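Why should sequence recovery work at all? Because a backbone constrains its sequence more than one might expect. Tight turns favour small or flexible residues, buried strands favour hydrophobic ones, and helices have their own preferences. The token representation captures these environments compactly. In the example below, the structure is given first.
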């Protein structure tokens, strides 16, 4: 049986502009070679609106390319930053119909992709991009180019006041989101209790956490606890019904160590049509 060689080039979509893709046939090898030129008009950062696309390899430290048939994983390639072919993959499979999942993130190890309906991560949820599509592969070599989209929501704590020198660690405990991803819908698929720790510096005022929202936008219940260098709790604050949505940043802005009420939450978005914000949501209760 003839086997098919095809090249996967993963490019993450950061805005409405599409990458310029050139296809050229390499007659010596008999394969289609993909060259992706990024239309870079200046980047304002991966979480802000921009008129350019960016290679997935610039945004993630790990990429997985996974093929499924009838929901069963049949072949996969895991890559990490530093690999010679990081950002593209060539896979040999028999002709047929496949589901192709490409997922990029920056965790400590590759995603576990055995179960298409529940992609899991051994480390914490990081900024994650993915795409799933059905493809029909024939006897002829062919190329597949994929634009990935962000699958997480970010919550950002903005500390508006001074950070005391005795503060050493922040613990974020939150429910309402998901730490696992459905590989087809690219939405959260479990109800998780997530915990993240962040080292504290008197000069660092922002701290970020991530979750995979479910099919409908979620409300998180977040407890943020501060500890000193000996592990003693010095402050704890709760934030109820914090709204999150895919590809949006929820900003929690407060004088955290002051301990008084009055924190507010605003939601900003990476827009996909132009560089205007989708709007804000102000949150006044704790």
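From this structural description, the recovered sequence reads:
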């Amino acid at each position: 049986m003839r086997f098919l060689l095809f090249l996967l080039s993963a490019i993450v979509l950061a805005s409405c502009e599409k990458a310029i893709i050139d296809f050229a046939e390499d007659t010596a090898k008999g394969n289609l070679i993909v060259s992706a030129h990024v239309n870079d008009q200046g980047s304002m950062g991966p979480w802000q609106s921009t008129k350019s696309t960016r290679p997935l390899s610039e945004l993630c430290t790990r990429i997985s390319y996974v093929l499924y048939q009838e929901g069963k994983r049949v072949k996969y390639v895991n890559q990490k930053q530093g690999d010679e072919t990081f950002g593209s993959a060539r896979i040999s499979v028999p002709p047929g119909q496949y589901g192709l999942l490409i997922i990029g993130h920056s965790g400590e190890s590759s995603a576990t992709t055995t179960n298409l309906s529940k992609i899991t991560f051994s480390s914490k949820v990081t900024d994650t991009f993915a795409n799933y599509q059905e493809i029909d592969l024939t006897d002829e070599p062919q190329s597949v180019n994929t634009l990935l989209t962000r699958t997480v929501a970010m919550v950002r704590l903005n500390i508006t006041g001074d950070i005391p020198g005795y503060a050493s660690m922040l613990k974020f405990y939150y429910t309402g989101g998901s730490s696992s991803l459905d590989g087809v819908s690219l939405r959260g698929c479990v109800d998780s209790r997530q915990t993240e720790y962040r080292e504290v510096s008197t000069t660092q005022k922002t701290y970020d956490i991530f979750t995979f929202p479910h099919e409908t936008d979620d409300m998180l219940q977040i407890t943020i606890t501060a500890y000193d260098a000996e592990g003693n709790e010095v402050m704890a604050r709760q934030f109820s019904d914090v709204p999150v949505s895919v590809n949006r940043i929820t900003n929690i802005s407060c004088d955290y160590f002051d301990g008084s009420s009055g924190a507010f939450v605003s939601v900003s978005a990476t827009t996909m049509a132009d560089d205007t914000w989708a709007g804000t949501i102000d949150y006044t209760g704790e």
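A few observations help interpret the result. The first strand starts at residue 4 and ends at 12.
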